[in-house]
């Protein structure tokens, strides 16, 4: 007779009570797993979006992130191709890398002068093929919502803009954007005409421009020397960027075009070198190596390495918020399970007091008796955990195939409600281990009380 | 050698702030291979004395030697192991484990002594055969009559081949006919297994069967009656 066998039979002795206890555990674990799976889907989704868009790590000019975001000329990185070569050919880093690509971020004004409209934009100069490759990163097997960047193989003056920006620039019809609602009322400018020098620059840009289908815009930016510069651009597509605030200002262009706009014929620079790793957990190792390489090879350049969580505080804030919610729910459920099992085991101890005395009289040690009751708690925990996991997986399957959607605050997409239970082994294992630990803790006190009973008192118990 | 020797044993219970003497200056020798009955009125200290002999309670003072060992000096774990190897118990309410079968109930003490499974099976079947329950091995206690349950308890008490079997009012919950049959069985087993049985009992049938009778009143031994001469025992 093994202790676990005896423990199992003792649990089956009062089936209704054991089932009630199990039910509390199953409901608790299911709730934890489903919420944990939902949390994981959200945080992984945000992480994937940032990693696809800007990589895991970025090499930037020192303080560019804190102070120079709107000043690419002062915080540009020269000789960036050399840095990229060093990174790509480093034997320690190479196996970790998915992509190393330069980018130039710049702000400016985009104008659809045919419609008499101009809007502030936040532009990214990218190498389209490399950007397209980056956007394929999907380490968590998530559903992609954003359309691929359509710049690959296009002319240097091609740009892709956000759906929101397209709406603001009255380009919805020209770009055939489905579901894009824009007012037909012409916007009458109340401001003064453009200065003569800007107008002259604009006219100059128009000389080489081919006739288009109403998708031509002009972008005004400040050059490295502080002078205004204008580029005539062809909007070839738009894409919904998910977050409305970004969607309303997003503009992606060829890196060469962005460099021409900012640096003219001078030495081209970039504002960041984006590094996408194969997996997120490689960040610490890759970051340490990058810092070492920079110190070794580019001691005179004021560069720093920043990870995506630092560059995108929203990720950390969202993760923290979701984690605190998860922690609160998990703690609440753990306390409920703790008391439920504690109550069940305490009742069992009282009911079986004479049996405890008999076992001790026959020679079962205190530790053996304690272990017997702990085994009952552990078995309850394991059975509850198994049932909870199965039910949670079933409910997760139903939710994931239900097509239910919601639009998170500040987002412009209705996202499918998905829960990642099976795909998140850490959540699964952590929750199961946590539940079993809670059962052990809750069974400990009654088990200890049983083991400390005086044999003669236990045998006298009525 | 006497399996049980008590010298100046005192046992006092503390009830709230009051000390209640249960046994006072007990000097006692229990002979080997005898049927010994502790007899006395309710509250005289029979069960307390039996508990001390059975090593499930400790004396406040005095010397308690069981199977040649000073049990008062043993740790709790050592005492548990001692009970598992040297003592058997038969309870008034049988105290069988309800979730175990007849076979498993008898087997349980052998598991505590870590006896190999094959040997356990052999021993249990022999004992169940001896108490007439070989055809009830798979039955649970709830499926047995009172007499059958007490037979299982007797087999369980003898499973580890103890030196001493303690029985607290073993026939109190049985009708007189079944009680008599149980006494006969215990007597038979005691002789076959060459073991000492110590009872606490009011039952005249038990007392009639006793080799030795210890009379106790108000926590003191008032007399010992030995039916068998010393050299026979």
Q: What do these coordinates show?
A:
The complex is a heterodimer of chains A (462) and B (233). Chain A has 17 helices and eleven strands. With 462 residues, chain A is of the alpha+beta class. Chain A folds into two domains: 3-47 and 316-460, no CATH class; 63-301, no CATH class. In chain A, strands 2-3-7-4-6-5 form a six-stranded mixed beta barrel, surrounded by four helices. In chain A, strands 10-11 form a two-stranded antiparallel sheet. In chain A, strand 2 (97-112) and strand 3 (117-126) form a beta hairpin. In chain A, helix 2 runs antiparallel to helix 13, helix 2 packs antiparallel against helix 16 (425-451) and helix 15 runs antiparallel to helix 16. Chain A is elongated and about 105 Å long. With 233 residues, chain B is of the alpha/beta class. Chain B contains seven helices and ten strands. Chain B is globular, with a radius of gyration of 17 Å. The N and C termini of chain B lie close together (11 Å). The interface between A and B is medium-sized, with 24 and 29 residues.
Rg from Cα of chain B: 17 Å
Strand content of chain A: 15-25%
Largest interface: A-B, 24 and 29 residues
* Percent in strands of chain B: 25-35%
- The proportion of residues forming helix of chain A, as a percent range, comes to 40-55%
Q: Oligomerization state of this entry?
A: heterodimer
What is the chain-wise order of helices and strands of chain B? EEEHEEHEHHHEHEHEE
Written as H for each helix and E for each strand, in order along the chain, the element string of chain A is HHEHHEEHEHHHEEHEHEHEHHHHEEHH
Count of DSSP H/I helices of chain B: 7
What's the count of strands of chain A? 11
Question: How big is the Rg of chain A?
Answer: 31 Å
Q: Note the total helix count of chain A.
A: 17
